[in-house]
Amino acid sequence: MKYVFSIFICAAVALISCKSNQTESLDLSGSWNFKIDSLNQGEAEKWYTAKLEETVELPGSMTTNGKGNKISVETKWTGQIVDSAWYTVDKYAKYRKPGNVKIPFWLQPDRHYVGAAWYQREVTIPEDFKGKNAQLYLERPHWETTLWVDSDRIGMQNSLGTPHTYNLGELTPGKHLISIRIDNAIKDINPGINAHSMTDHTQTNWNGIIGEIKLEAKPLISLQQVNLYPDASTKTVALRGKLNGSIKTEEQVILKIAVNGTGSNTQTYKEVSEHITLDSEGYFNLNYTVDEVLLWDEFTPNLYEMNLTLQSESGTDTKTISFGFRDFKAKGQQLVINDRPVFLRGTLECAVFPITGYPSTDVAEWKRIMSVVKDHGLNHVRFHSWCPPEAAFVAADELGVYIQAEASTWPNGNSSIGDGFPVDKWLYQETQDILDAYGNHPSFVLMTSGNEPLRRNHKPYLRKYVDHFRTIDNRRLYTGAADRPYLDNLDYYSNMDARVQRWGEGLNSVINGKAPQTLFDFRSITDTIPMPYVSHEIGQWCVYPNFKEMSKYTGVLKPKNFEIFKETLEEHHLGHLADSLVLASGKLQTLCYKADVEAALRTKDFGGFQLLGLSDFPGQGTALVGVLDAFWEEKGYVSPAEFKSFSGETVPLARLEKRTFLNSDTLNASVELAHYGQEPLLNVTPFWVINDTNGNTVEKGTFPAQDFQIGNGIALGEISLQLNNIKTAQQLKLSVSVEEFTNSWDIWVYPAKKEVLNSKVQVVEKLDAATLAFLEQGGSVLLNGTKGALVAGKGGDIGIGFSSIFWNTAWTRGEKPTTLGILCDPNHPALADFPTQYHSNWQWWDAMTHSNAIILDEFGSELKPIVRVIDDWFENRSLGLLFETRVGNGKLLVSGIDLHTDLKNRIEAQQLLFSLKNYMSGDAFNPTQELDINKIKALYTSK
């Protein structure tokens, strides 16, 4: 049955619309009465009829109000704990004692509570509400709300990602008691304890309401939902809407529509009035025609507002909707916006909010975060297993950031989808709620059910899920879930294979198992996928904790994990190195991210990548994977501009077969461009230059001028340079520029012929009797054992490799490497002929691949190694690659690096050996500290 309403409006409607100064909304933020219901007695005892005695401030959570239980060993967390050593291991015993409880899993809340709690407020309904429908709006409650008004139970809602809105009907003017029972416990519906929508790993499993809270007076007939479908090609906006309220057959209802640009968009379109035809479910469809339109994308985020005025006999209702004209789709293996290829350069936002422990609902804060994302050259944010509040979409709309939202689930481990549990039905409703709440935002371009499902029946379930939502709302692209599974009906494929280190690969990954080069890409993977491929959670490279960051934690979450790490570092007498450990490991971390990102950019027609992450993830055992901290602020070792040079919209790329050369070699590089800017680059002459570390030009050249269309794999030309003019070992930098866009790569050149000044230095693999006698006679010895010769417990069991730690050792169960690169004094004379910075760079790959880290703690805090290895912050041992000591009349330099195995094929090892032997041949080699030779011998196996 359909209802048709004429355009004529009765006089009563006109009178109603002319009234002014009416109270249409009551702000309910402020003081609320409160009571914890840990035994679930409140409903049976009718707490909704009695005044609760405690008070809290809303918006807020129990934690921000100081409510809940103190943290203890018995705290029942919402989140998987992979490494449970904290509960049993002696080194953590002092952190389990009352009064000194410190956990290493994640940031520690001041208070913790899981269960039901009651929030109550008396409100006075004004006369202006008479004859209207009262609606209670709760932005971002967490998570199940049950509502009573006076003694009447209104209902229950349990969306994690959208506001809870309750229709209360007509309330008589005067006082009414609103009681809300909020339960944050997982019951029959289980999104997964690690889902960022609710886990203690990130935002915490808080209890409360943290956004806008208001009571609105709505006409008995009002606009419940309006979805807009802008189409620039036809210059129309299709409206699909639904009315709320009971409608009489003869009632007259019209909708006035006005559209104008916002911000810098000054376009204005005519106002129209349309009568509405409703279907049997209360939905209506209308088309609004516009003139010329301005498109929305990352470069020109043009926005419009549609102002809707619904008029009926019951009064006037208004709604303002922000939207943009954009067409985001898949075209073969590419993602395309407005017919222009787009490369998603994304990072994750994992609901990390250290001050409040819950997401911000403030547009200004989200604009700050989105601006930081764009400053680093990125254009995309994936919200991992959660959906952000409205404010995030508003900020992304205004700044031009592409959003992937997820329907609040991580169904893995303790949860599943597709197996017939209640979460299956709930997930459909959660997704629909998200589409209804945020679907008009042009920034909302990608949608998934959540993160990494892994169950028997999830594939057929997600196949139907994708088909269902693509059919009812085609304004964005859909994939089943982040990372898995592959289904042939997906709009795009999210997968973890295309990255330089995959989960579990350890020392066999591209970055650790293959010598440094920049030739590789991921075509072998993407060529098998017929749809756009977006690489899942690339990076995950760790940096040492920045203890200076600790003073920022002034809210409800405290860095007790950092306190543990800081204390153990100081116990190992290394506290003075804390800042240096951050900077050195951070430089390595940046190298690793650059390798990941550039490999993606080299892959022809790649869909994009999602970093994990630009900012730190404080949970899952403390995953310090960001070049930014948990506050989205810099750590001091890489600037946004430097990061953008390899991750921005236009990036020159060089394919190099290696990073270290002999001066008898020829440097060959194939140079190309990834250009995903706003427009093609026309008549551009790219150029290249090789500089030394002092900025002096070694060589330079240009490539032929040409036009560059949008895309990647665009050839610029070849570089071929003989290196025979370089006579001494040098670190050089190859830079390629295309207009203002410059990217660069460090390379090293070593002399092919080397002559050590003094050949009296003995290089040995073992401290045998003859070597010890030579030392006693005043000789100089370089001891470099074969990799694997160190005893377990002395360093032989430490997983050393080139890259930084992947994710963190607690969550990966000690996946190698378990170290964070080197720290050294680059001016130490032992390294005079092996050019280096204070941190790891690619010339150290060979050394780190052929070495063991030596545990130095037993030799005392006075021992200062020439090259230090940065240990995992869970251990904080003093580790060395190179250290020296006096032995009787002799001098000994101990190397954890194998400098003898297959030496003819290891030019970096040859150069390092040359540098060490030169050092040991001169007067500078004069160690003053004498170590126990028996302790040194005990480092090695007797084999």
Helix proportion: 10-25%
Poorly predicted regions: 1-20
Envelope shape: globular
Number of helices: 15
Derived structural class: alpha+beta
End-to-end separation in angstroms reads 90 Å
Q: Outline the biggest β-sheet.
A: 8 strands, parallel
**Residue share in β-strands:** 25-35%
Number of strands: 52
Radius of gyration: 32 Å
How confident is the prediction overall: mean pLDDT? 95
* Adjacency order of strands in the biggest sheet: 31-30-29-28-27-35-33-32
List the helices and strands and how they pair.
Blueprint: E1 3-4, H1 11-18, E2 25-27, E3 30-37, E4 54-58, E5 60-61, E6 108-109, E7 116-125, E8 133-138, E9 141-142, E10 144-149, E11 152-157, E12 164-169, E13 174-183, E14 208-209, E15 213-218, E16 222-231, E17 236-244, E18 254-262, E19 272-275, E20 277-278, E21 283-289, E22 303-312, E23 315-323, E24 328-331, E25 334-337, E26 340-342, E27 344-349, H2 363-375, E28 380-383, H3 390-399, E29 402-409, H4 422-438, E30 444-450, H5 458-472, E31 477-478, E32 493-495, H6 510-513, H7 523-526, E33 533-539, E34 557-558, H8 560-571, H9 578-602, E35 608-612, H10 640-644, E36 650-656, E37 660-662, E38 666-675, E39 681-684, E40 687-692, E41 697-702, E42 706-708, E43 711-722, E44 730-738, E45 741-750, E46 762-764, H11 769-776, E47 780-784, H12 809-812, E48 819-824, H13 845-849, E49 854-855, E50 867-871, E51 879-887, E52 890-895, H14 907-921, H15 933-937
Parallel strand pairs: 27-28, 27-35, 28-29, 29-30, 30-31, 32-33, 33-35, 37-45, 46-47, 47-52
Antiparallel strand pairs: 1-20, 2-15, 3-4, 3-7, 5-14, 6-34, 7-13, 8-12, 8-15, 9-14, 10-11, 10-13, 16-17, 17-21, 18-19, 18-22, 22-23, 24-25, 25-26, 36-38, 38-43, 39-42, 40-41, 40-44, 44-45, 48-50, 49-51, 50-51, 51-52
Helix pairs in contact: 2-3
